[in-house]
Amino acid sequence: MPDLIAASHNADSMYKEWRHLQRGGLRRNQTSAVPLYRRTRHMRVYCSNVIPGLLQTQSYAAALLRTIAEFEGAVNDAPDAAAARVERSQVLYDRTKRFALLVEEDVLYFPVGDAGTMTEQLGFLLSVMPLPSVSLGVIPRTAPRQMWTLEGFLAFGDEQVQVETLSANITITRPSEVTLYLRAFERLSKMAVYGANARRTILAAAAAHG
User: Fold this and answer.
1) Could you read off the pLDDT of 196-205 as tens digits, one per residue?
2) How far is residue 187's CA from residue 178's CA, in Å, rounded to a whole number?
3) pTM of the full structure
4) What are the residue boundaries of the structural domains of the chain, listed by start?
5) Is the CB of residue 138 less than 8 Å from the CB of residue 202?
6) Whole-number Å distance between alpha carbons of 104 and 183
7) Parallel, antiparallel, or unpaired for β 153-156 and 42-47?
8) Does the 2-22+41-54+97-209 domain belong in CATH 3.90.320?
């Protein structure tokens, strides 16, 4: 019954194509999510292709968003959109919240922008790791896979998951599906390294961009 209720309430808003969300530019999509980010107390994020948006520097975000705008044929307001993304990320400094973020090690090596952009970005990851609200895990390339590589997703509490595909942002509220993603996140988190081991992994990637 909870699944049926969730499905009936959200059928029209669960699947939103990026080309519609970004029709007037990319900045609006960054600011529209601010209320959700602010009211969420516990967020889990898994990324297999880019640095999580919450942890992106402005230069990294601008480089990524320029590529997205070009690919989508959207209005290229990447600098403004990047600034809005960084502003949205100020929630990281709220000590009443918890953010658990996982990235695949390969993400640290994918060159988004130039070498300076990547060096700055990886340095920023190191700077936010000590925050009491943040848990950052890196899944090593050599880690035995208890869970296969997935599409990027964000879990807002235990009630909602957003899955980012090439064509659309999919919002999942059906309890059984949300539980499935949370279970996947738990498995992925057990494969990751944290603390000093994660720092060494990030530093090695930074040296490769050197």
Assistant:
1) 999 999 999 9
2) 14
3) 0.91
4) 2-22+41-54+97-209
5) yes
6) 17
7) antiparallel
8) no
